[in-house]
Amino acid sequence: MGVNxxxxxxxxxxxxxxxxxxxxxxxxxxxxxxxxxxxRDESDATRAExxxxxxxxxxxxxxxxxxxxxxxxxxxxxxQPFVSAQDLPSNPPIYDDLPDVDPMEMEEEHLELxxxxxxxxxxxCVNNFNEKIIIPVRLNVMDPLAQLYxxxxxxxxxxxxxxxxPIILRRLFYIILMSVIxxxxxxxxLMPSNRSSHYGGMFSDHELLIQYARQSMDLSKLERDLEYVxxxxxxxxxxxxxAITNYIEESMEANNLKIIKxxxxxxxxxxxxxxxxxxxxxxxxxxxxxxxxxxxxxPLSPCGKLERNNIVYGYxxxxxxxxxxxxxxxxxxxxxxxxxxxxxxxxQILIAEQYDAKAILFISEQNEDNDLIQQKSASLPQFGTGDxxxxxxxxxxxxxxxxxxxxxxxxxxxxxxxxxxxxxxLNNLDKKGIKFDDGNFSGNKQVKVDLNVDIATRERQPxxxxxxxxxxxxxxxxxxxxxxxxxSVNFGAQYPGFGTAxxxxxxxxxxxxxxxxxxxxxxxIYFISFGGTEFNYAGxxxxxxxxxxxxxxxxxxxxxxxxVGLWDDSGxxxxxxxxxxxxxxxxxxxxxxxxxxxxEHIQQYGDWIPYLANGIPSTVISNPSIKDxxxxxxxxxxxxxxxxxxxxxxxxxxIAEELLLYIFEVILKLSDYPYIQFDLIKFGDVMLDVLHNxxxxxxxxxxxxxxxxxxxxxKRIGLxxxxxxxxxxxxxxxxxxxxxxxxSVSRWTWNRKLSNIGRRQLSLVGLPERPFxxxxxxxxxxxxxxxxxxxxxxxxxxxxxxxxxxxxxxxQMDVVGNVLxxxxxxxxxxxxxxNIYH
Length: 838
Prior knowledge:
This protein is of the alpha/beta class. The protein has 25 helices and 17 strands. The strands form 3 sheets. It has an 8-stranded mixed β-sheet with strand order 3-11-13-12-14-17-15-16, sandwiched between helices. Strands 5-4-10-6-7-8-9 form a 7-stranded mixed β-sheet, covered by helices on one side. A hairpin with a 4-residue loop joins strand 1 and strand 2 (203-204). The protein is elongated and about 130 Å long.
């Protein structure tokens, strides 16, 4: 390093030290005494060390210092205000040997200075904010408001003292005010939550619920439930029935569904044995035995033993067929009638009894497995459903009748056979007598039969109903019922097992909505698993007989899903049999979800019959193949293993999902829509069409004016109801989104009146000779046969026409007219009394 460079570096070092001393001197007044003394001591020590180093350099570098002095004249000393030329040593020191100086000491001092400036600025900002905003607002706004508040409080207390204790009155006013605010916030849906609120938070958002139901669909649960409920034979009152009953109850409880009760009823029941026998006597020396098994059993068939009776084949056993056989003298001697199953087995049995048959052998339909036996009940529900020993009432309030006096059960032995067994009989008959459409002959009384039907009977055996409930949040005195049959003589996978599994899946879907969105329907929903279906629908009937008043007053719609089943490749068809009040609802209100929906009148028997008979509008949702009991339904082959491949098929799985969504949407609309979805105009139109068609059939032999006038009156009421719906929708749905309290009361009143329509269209005496059926407008007729849909309307009139009793027919027509008229007048009177908003 050269001398000049060293002199320049020394000059820079001295300048830095001088500036540091100047900076320290300026800060000393701001520091405390201890810190200042410490700084001075450190500064003096630093200077002493510096001078000592400089003296050492003067003695050791004489020659170099001379060159340094020559170069020093070239430095502009006047640029350095704190150092003069006279102060410079003759020989500058070598600064490489100087003690180290930590540069961080100076950086920390500068950092402290910057931090101090930031704090000062912050304090200045706070002071300015206080002076320019806080203090003026306090002086000009808050203090005057406080003074005003004190004046108002004094005045308020002065006047409140004239009324009562001001402290109590102020608290009362506070409670009222907070209640109003809370109600507004909660009803407006302003509070953050997961609730499925819509229209100002007062009603549920059904689109949101259906979307979530689609996303959360669990077909694996449907499969698990179906596998279990069809894993064993479960005829009512057996161990299998009890096991499945417990499973259903546990499943409902696992979904936190409120279990109302497990209802237990005692009913007449019977069970198969292996002791029945059948022998064909072809001649004196030739007897052919037809082996029977435990599947040769028809529920509620009486026992019986016959010897040497003629065998007569009667095809499907219609009245015309039996009359023809009688006219040809094939029925003169004791005979056993061989029949093919028809649509209404109960009517086949009743006709056979009227023509003095001693027993009936039913031949099952032809199928891939022709050894299957269809096991259908031998009850006669056209005279009434329920326990056959306590007809029309719930025991044990009245003593049971004797089985021989029961009208709603067969009085002759019924034995079902397989197709192969039936063909063996038909092949042995002579090709003589009457030839039928299937190519078989009636026979010529040459073949005889020995028959023994042995069945284990229990006059008092328990049947169980399981009832779960979702409580409504608004009109919890009104409800819909979702029902499904549970019992089967066999495993019953397609029917009724799939319906039971569907019921449990719907329970889960509804409860998921409850926990996800805090959803509760406006009206109650009951989920019921019925027992005793094979014993003349004992479970459903005994329940409504025991709780007649409560169920009839509360339930405005019953929906049965026992027959939904799984779809084959015949098409995505869905049959909906329902009350005319709901025809429009199922045709045009509910989305079809891709199904081909066929809406018609109810015209089949099931657990819905006691509800229909007592005026509760009922609906039956069915897969057409299950409704028609296509094989393997009602046979031992109706097992889970036989249909599990359908569940795993992607296309069938999608159909099952859409079916669940369809039924769930029906439940939503009926239980949670603000007003009940009854269409009174459509009701009038449908019934007028039925009346006109019937009048044409009978060639205008009855006076139908009263019925027509009454239905026209109902249509006028329907117009009023339709106008109210439009106004309600305009006020609530379009404008405000919040339903005013006056409108709410009006809506509740309309809903109550609509729910009463069915139970007010009853006749307390019931139908002639069939008092079980109080519903004189919609009930089973005594004879249906192959009549078209709609034959179960005006049943009393049609029964009288069937008998040729035209006077009785006119009486029944007048009964229908009076019931329709009085129910309409009651509807109008209730309208006036309650001053319903128009």
